[in-house]
Design goal:
Elements lengths: L2 E5 L3 E6 L2 E7 L18 E6 L2 E5 L9 E4 L6 E5 L2 E3 L3 H9 L3
Length: 100
């Protein structure tokens, strides 16, 4: 099981493997418990290429690409990913404590 955080300009998407388990506002630090990405899988990512968009796998070229949660009841596409990092041990404990 791999935990990681993919952050856009305004939002952190907390992922377990490719499933979104939490969403947090980067400015306020508040958790958005009703975000439509939660519980959904990153089905692909899109990179801007020569004025168009090219789909690619989640595991490659993430910085600058957008994540697409295509299996959500209403598909969600994020802003461009600016940074991807692993959560610290306290956040992993938080995830496990608050798992549904």
């Amino acid at each position: 099981m791999k935990f990681q955080i993919a952050a856009t300009r305004n939002t952190e998407y907390h992922l377990r493997d490719r499933v979104c388990i939490a969403v947090r506002d980067r400015r306020t630090g508040r958790w958005d418990i009703e975000h439509p990405a939660i519980g959904n899988v990153v089905t692909c990512m899109f990179a801007s290429v020569r004025g168009g968009w090219r789909a690619h796998a989640f595991s490659t070229r993430r910085i600058g690409s957008v994540m697409h949660f295509g299996e959500a009841p209403e598909p969600v596409t994020t802003g461009a990913v600016r940074v991807v990092f692993e959560p610290d041990a306290n956040l992993v404990a938080f995830y496990q404590e608050h798992a549904a």
